[in-house]
Amino acid sequence: MTSQESSETTVVTIDVLVAKNLITSGHRYLDVRTEEEFKKGHVDVENILNIPYMFNTPEGRVKNPEFLELVSAKCSKDDHLLIGCQTGVRSLYASADLLKADYKHVTNMGGGYAAWVENGFSVKKPELNTSSDKTS
User: What are the Rhodanese domain coordinates in residue numbering (predicted)?
Assistant: First the structure.
């Protein structure tokens, strides 16, 4: 477990092994990747939520200006939230923003979805359309 400090908040970062245990003990998983990334595959857990922290634009990635508003519509400030992204960078920033907004139980998943997959944990991927395999 490591922590990143800023002037106002300390983000606790845990590895995916600890994260998996937190999820099974009732933490809500908040995936902050883009919808496109999420749809390609995500952590396979029941209590998952996808709210992008950043969007891809022609100018590059920009922060989602409605991120905190969208989270507050779905989560209480007392919920136990595990924040994940692709590699752990966006989730670190998202975790810091949530803590600054008075969310009390926020944990960052270090390594993100990439580390989850690398450890062989269960993922959910879209069903492949096999209709193109059929010959007419």
Answer: 23-125
Tell me which fold the domain 2-123 belongs to. Answer: Oxidized Rhodanese; domain 1 (3.40.250)
Break the chain into its structural domains and give their ranges.
Answer: 2-123
First vs last C-alpha separation in the chain: 56
Give residue 29's pLDDT: 97
Instruction: Give the phi and the psi of residue 107 in degrees, each rounded to 5.
Output: -130, 135
> Long-range pairs for 31-39 at CB < 8 Å and ≥24 separation?
31/84, 31/85, 31/113, 32/67, 32/83, 32/84, 32/85, 32/90, 32/91, 32/94, 33/84, 33/85, 33/86, 33/90, 33/113, 37/86, 37/113, 39/126
Our answer to whether residue 85 is catalytic in this structure is yes
DSSP letters, 89-132, are HHHHHHHHHHHHTT-SEEEEETTHHHHHHHTT--EE-PPP--GG
Greater pLDDT, 65 or 2: 65
Catalytic residue among 71, 75, 85, 96: 85
Model-level pTM greater than 0.90? no
